[in-house]
Amino acid sequence: MRTVAIRGSVLGVMTCVLAAALSAAGAFAAKPAHGAHFTGRTAAQPVLGFYAPVKFTVSQNGRELTGFSYGSFGCFGAGGFKPGVNPYTGSSVIHIGAVKVSASGSISVSGAKSTSSGFGNTTVTTVSVAGRFTKPKAVAGTITFSQKITGKFNSTCGPAQIGFTASAH
After folding, report:
1. How many Å from the N-terminal Cα to the C-terminal Cα in the chain?
2. What is the C-alpha to C-alpha distance for residues 160 and 135, in angstroms, rounded to an integer?
3. How far is it, in rounded angstroms, from Cα 153 to Cα 147?
4. Phi and psi (nearest 5°) for 62?
5. Contact (CB, 8 A) for 97 and 127
6. 130: closest CA among 157, 102, 149, 159?
7. Average of pLDDT values for 55-63?
8. C-alpha neighbours within 13 Å on the C-beta side of residue 76
9. What pLDDT does 57 receive?
10. In the CATH hierarchy, which top-level class contains the domain 31-168?
11. Which of 6, 95, 152, 162 lies 20 to 30 Å from 143 when distance is taken between CA atoms?
């Protein structure tokens, strides 16, 4: 009798675990809303009340994100922010272009490059993005980047990683 009770308990636990896993898989696998415009933010702390933005559009066929960009001061940081002025403009917005979307709703790009110049330096940011649509109008993921500065100041940094979320409105 004790064996039956143990088997029943194990079977019950296994059934619950399997149901939870299937539920979680369904919650994390979604196809994006075709043609939708997404905005969001990274997990970076806000600067003067402004959050680092994430922005892109889903292509009409749903197979890629176009115009993917995100706000970042990079590995080297920045300073001298003016109160009330959004610091996420100009070279603090990294444009990486297209990101692939799989049939299951996963997103990925690896080795995308963005270049900016200023103050006698050129900064090349190399970016990878990975994530998943959790709903047709919601996505979460991770941005991983490295930077190389050449010119008056020569240095490299990274990889650094930051999470992000975005939604369509």
Report:
1. 58
2. 27
3. 13
4. 75, 10
5. no
6. 102
7. 96
8. 16
9. 97
10. mainly beta
11. 152
